[in-house]
Design brief:
The chain is built from seven helices and no strands. By secondary structure, it is mainly α.
């Protein structure tokens, strides 16, 4: 999940501890943990190169806050979030629309009230029309 990956990337330490995998340090950003684990060496090498490129002159907090979190939103409008709000509204509950709109007004902020909106796509949405099966003209 690119949104979650780039957000998590800002929190990666410059030197990766040898006792933890890079995918563990990134957190819940991969849909397939087995595939991520199989590419661990490549991910570590990429992270090392990335850190070399972005570390010129910036401290960890500066890089994290200014270079990563300021330009990578925590929340983006995802099809499954829209579908959940639509489904609830069709049943007469419009609170999901309001909560989603409130979260989308401050996409770079992350907190307890926004955490339901920055999760990985749930498995049920993988095959549900309107959540992941849209054409370019939809």
């Amino acid at each position: 999940d690119f949104t979650r990956f780039f957000r998590a990337l800002g929190g990666m330490p410059r030197v990766l501890p040898p006792d933890r995998s890079a995918s563990q340090l990134l957190g819940d950003v991969f849909y397939d943990a087995a595939k991520a684990a199989a590419r661990e060496d490549e991910l570590r090498a990429w992270l090392k190169t990335w850190h070399e490129r972005v570390s010129h002159g910036a401290s960890e907090p500066e890089r994290r806050e200014r270079a990563m979190r300021a330009v990578n939103p925590s929340i983006v409008l995802r099809n499954f979030l829209s579908q959940q709000a639509i489904d609830a509204a069709e049943q007469g509950d419009f609170s999901g629309i309001g909560a989603l709109l409130t979260a989308l007004r401050t996409p770079y902020e992350h907190g307890a009230d926004t955490s339901p909106f920055d999760a990985l796509r749930p498995e049920w949405a993988r095959h549900k029309a309107g959540c992941s099966m849209l054409s370019c003209s939809s």
